[in-house]
Every structure is written in structure tokens, then in C-alpha cells.
Amino acid sequence: MSNQPIERNRPLHVAARNADNGDRARNDSDGGRMTRTPRRQDGTHDRSDGTHEALAQTLGWFSVGLGLAEILAPRPLSKLIGLQGEHPSVLRAFGVRELTSGLGILSKRRPAGWVWSRIAGDGMDLAFLGAAFAFPRANRSKLAAASVAVLGVTALDWYAGMQLSRMVGWTVASGAILITKTITIDRSPEELYQFWREFQNLSQFMGHVESVAVIDRTRSHWIVKGPGERPVEWDAEITEDVTNQRIAWRTVAPADVEHQGSVQFTPAAGQRGTIVKVVIEYQAPAGMVGAAIAHLFGDEPGQQVQTDLRALKQIMETGEILQSDGSLDGIGMTQQRSAQPAGAGMGT
Fold first, then answer.
1. How remote is the C-alpha of 204 from its chain's centroid?
2. Residue 338 phi, psi dihedral angles, 5° rounding
């Protein structure tokens, strides 16, 4: 595989360099800590940011109040929305969800994920109200009024979620989700670039990657484990290749998950290895709602990228990955997975 420079103008380059300026990661003494600065993608702060944060706090208190009402007084609330005091257990369950979301929102300054979880809850409420129109004793006028009220709150939730996502750097101008992760590895940029550039190596440390098949000098075919172990596939093409410094790529349509990304290798200060920075911009199949729910339950791409970079650090510094099965299967045993040297047994 040739490593000649390939450069094309892509929107991601602007996003990645803005992220360099506005989302600088800090590395701790062992060079392995990865952080995401909670600020906007371009590193600036709009005067309206305080208003959006205040709106989120209002939605949080609304969730807490509604949740308590649903838990403590489900039958009166059921009558109020046209259900004649029926289905109190359903309303109590909704109340627990509302209370959890509200407390989550109030616990953070810019609670983008928790606000998006509220939108998922709004969808559940609307689905229940829609089904309730078929109930024999239902008051359809009250149900219609309740549905309109939920739609209004959903619009506020959506607006707050979009603004907060922009403020914390979760999204770019196009609305795509932005992931930026950084780690310091005690190896040279040349070693790390060569290992990454042999794309077949990636499955050694990327937990969800089943295989990467090289098609030609710039294209490859990926098979990745998606939600529920469902295979997800795409073709990717290299859009920029600067030897020992940077690799950028994007998916080629049609793709199960459209995304573009880059990895950059920068010498760390004081000859302390190399700073590896990964920037990925992707369209979540279920949008921001699905991404936020996945984030809350520990299965979103940002967490996976962070885990993968830690695995890369282990594989490059020690030659093997120490992986706890407790996080995967609940067994709690530790496995060792050996690594091959960069490019070992792989044709180009």
C-alpha cells in the first residue's frame, strides 16, 4: 500500500482544526487520560448560551414536578388527561422516567444527553396518548389537549437539545455528531502512523471492528458490530494521507453509517511519545435522540473510540491488550490478547 500524500478539500478538515483550537485535550502524567472540554466546537461562547442553559434548567424542574405528580397522584392526573383515572401503573412508570431525566438535567451545567433523553420520553408519552384514543372510556377532547401540550414541550426539548449539543461540541454546523478523543502513547509518530496505515491492524484494538479489507490504495471495506451484534458495513476512502502525520477518510455511499474522520500523530513535548488525536463526524442512524440514549446506556461511539485508543496504547507500549471480560460478559476475568507487529503477515 502506497503512503504518498493524498489531499482533498473536505468539510471535516475545517471541523477538525476548529476542534483543535476549541477542544484541546489535557493529558495527565502517564499520558493516558482523555478529556473533552465542554465548550462549543469553535471554542467561542455566544451570549445566548446562558439562555439555553436556563431553558434546560427549567425543563429539568418541569420533569421533576411532572414526575412527582405522576408517581404520587397518578389517578387524578389520569383524569386530567382524559383517561378517567385508569392506568395508574403506567403513569407511575412514566413518573420514574421523568424524575430521572429531571434530576439528570439539574445535575449538569450543560446536560445535552439528559435533554435528548427527555425527547425519547416525549415520544413514549405521545405513543401512549395516541393508543389511548382507542380506550372505550377515554375523553378524546382531553386526550387531544394533552397531546398538543406534549408536542409543545417536545419542541422546547428539541430546541434545547440542539443548542446544548452545539455548546458542548457534540454537533457541527451541519447537525452531524462530532467526536474528538486524544491520548498520548509512548511511541514515535512514525511507528503509530505505520501501524494505523496498515488498516488490517485496526481490528486488533478497535473492539467493534470485525474486519477491514483493503480494496486498493485509497479504498477499504469495513465490517463492524453494530447494536445487538448486527453487522454494519461500509466502504471508506482516504481523503488525506500525510506520511507520519495524518490520515483522513470518509465513507462512500451507500453506507450503513455515514461518517468522516481523521487521525493525527503529533510529537509530544519533552520527547514523551506521540499525541494521537481522533476526530469523527457522523450521522447517527436514530439522530441525536438515539445517540444520547446510547450515551446514557454506555454504547455510544464516543465511549468506544476512547476505549479503542486505550487499547491502542496498550498494544503499542506492551504488545498486548489486557481486557476485562467483566465489562462485556459479567464474568470479571482478565484476558490477554497478543498483538502482531505493524504490518506482520499483511500484504499491500
1. 22
2. -75, 150
